[in-house]
Amino acid sequence: MNWLTNFVRPKLRALVTRKEAPENLWLKCPKCEQMLFTRDWEVNQQVCSHCGHHMRIRPMKRLPHLFDEGKYELHPLPRVTSDPLKFRDTKRYDARLKEAQSKAEGTTDALVVASGPMGGRMAIMALLDFGFMGGSMGTAVGEGLVMAAELAVARKAPLIAFSASGGARMQEGILSLMQLTRSTIAVRLVKQAGLPYIVVLTDPTTGGVSASFAMLGDVHLAEPDAIIGFAGPRVIQDTIRQELPEGFQRSEYLLEHGMVDAVVHRHKLRETLIRLVHLLMDPVASEGRGLAVAVR
Ligand SMILES: [Zn+2]
Question: 35 C-alpha vs ligand 1 centroid, how far in Å?
């Protein structure tokens, strides 16, 4: 009996049971629910190949698709006091930070700053990382934005910001709110130097970020179907006690209402940014070509 139960039965069971695929080999599109092969999905910049749904993408996955030949330099964020208020909720803030840092790539907080050639011209990029504590803006992000702006001015390069954030970093209290003004001043540095500041709004851009640097661009591009707004639709609906229109706070809705200049597919972002920077920085060479043509 032992031989039958210990040897033959497992062998037979192995033959009839389906082999489990590794968990991360496939993923399901949250919009159309089709299965996607993870490797294809990554090559496709995390856009669903069936329905075109743009899933959230972290900065380090996005950067190679923006710069010439995928070559760029990362700029570490300036050091700041990591837990100025010694804040604690269910967990200590510095423990939360350390955990997020251990999973983050290319940065120590929710912002990645990179520079490199884009269309043969130097560009500075500042990308919020929603995977790092919801892309929340604390002191480190504010300092990073100032650094990116100073870099743009020093190199006479355009500044391109990618927003993806739930808003201010609650654990830093008032210091977090101060970053609204700091990031606004950072944008002003770039504008005063006569350099372009372009914002790419990605899913989701809300709270303090949408109330500061993310809405101050010379040009606002948005990825399709991204949530962009200050307060969430549920909060607004509960406050005004009215049904909200369909597609409220989505990129396409904001385009229709004049808050966004163009909704651009992720695969078209690089060429659109190159064309925009060219139009804004070489006005003579690009004379005769309208902006509407440029971003389409
Ligand atoms: Zn899909």
Answer: 8
